[in-house]
From TrEMBL:
Keyword terms of this UniProt record: Antiport, Cell membrane, Membrane, Transmembrane, Transmembrane helix, Transport
Gene: nhaC
Membrane spanning stretches: 15-35, 41-64, 71-96, 116-149, 199-221, 241-259, 266-288, 320-338, 359-384, 438-458
Family stated for the protein in its record: Belongs to the NhaC Na(+)/H(+) (TC 2.A.35) antiporter family.
Protein's name in the database: Na+/H+ antiporter NhaC
Amino acid sequence: MPNTTTNDTSIRPSFLGAVSCIGFLCFMMFAQIFILGEDWVTHISLIFAIAVTAVIALVSGFTWHDIQKGILYGCEIAMLPMLILMMVGVLVASWIASGTIPSLVYYGLQLINPAYFLFTAVIVCAIASLVTGSSWTTAATFGVAFMGIGTGLDVPAAMTAGAVISGAIFGDKISPVSDSTNLAAGVAEADLFDHIRSMFYTTGPALVISAALFFFIGMGFDSGGVDTSRTDRLLQGIQENYSVGLLAFLPPLVVLVLAYRRVSALAVMVIGSLVGGAMAVAIQGVGIGDMMNFMNYGYVSETGVESVDSLLSRGGLQEMMWTISLGFIGLSLGGLLEKTRMLEVLLERMGKLVSNARGLIVTHVFAALATNLFSASQYIAIIIPGRMLVPAYRKLKILPSVCSRTCEDSATVTSPLVPWGLGGAYYMGVLDVSAWDYMGWTFLALITPVIAVLYAMFNLFIWREGERNDVNTYRQQEVQLG
């Protein structure tokens, strides 16, 4: 059987062809939202974009096998995150049935002052993600609980989601056990702890500003502004229908310990789901068959109290399928754009702007933002611009920790803002809020790239060799290679 894959590495799409692919994707997203007024048909828009990209790739000289290979490459990247997302649906259902989420909501409503709720959500999620190194685990556990508490306190869901995500992605950037933190350091050839130390100069102020904004916004939700009768009915409904107590906090404790010990995220979700399911059977009196149905189709609350039932009827593997299919389609487009060299052609044009430190950092930020938008993956947005611009950092004698920091300041933090990307799809599925709604409230994701650009414009904290005692420098690496 003849090989139908082209091995000619000189085949490249034209700049016009690459721009046309991106332009069509932008047009489809604009038309979907502002002309058709449909926020939830992103899948079909992406499929149209894949079709147009495939046609342009064929015209450029690539074979259908090349195109299929790029699509499957994207699906391969999506496989593990989507498996984790499946188990998140199972975990949420099991934790509701076990009384874990009802207990978190019950105690949270009693302990958290409405005026400080959003501030508390940011800080708690920041600490949890710093300990676990996982924004996804934080959102699926503490995030879901905060969404429930916010509902009881009459705080808009989009605000609560913005606070949860702002806190969660802080740890995803800073924690030494985070995959994106280690990936960015590796891509830029920086020492891990030099990278973390460098990130505090951008992420630290961003967290402080975000927390302050949520603190002042939250002051508008004082105790007098909350419908106490509604909250009382919610508390009473939970107490009368669920076994609420400290034992219900066992599943999240198990998840936190396993995540801190760097157990695989997929294994953590499976174990957390099983612990929750076992407690539901043993403590809440749920039948094994019912528990399996809840894990598959989602938990259905039938207390007769409308506020309780609407809050606690959710989760399940099947409930995640909308998000999972979006992840696979979005990453298929990203893989196709990468393997047909569309992104490479676009980034090379941007590479002409990197003759000085200011242009280099600004170009890196916008290149990673664009890659995030068009590849649907923060990992691709870290790897491709980072590796393509490392020679420019080396030439200007800028430390690797500045390069790695910029990877995270632009790629990692903006991932939740892309509705068709892995991050956006995940948070929409877990928190049940559209990315279009929460993105304006996700302050840390919006502020961090601005701080990075301002530092570049005013040449602040852009260290060169000899200005900071980093373990790794590009000069040392050149000497070792020489």
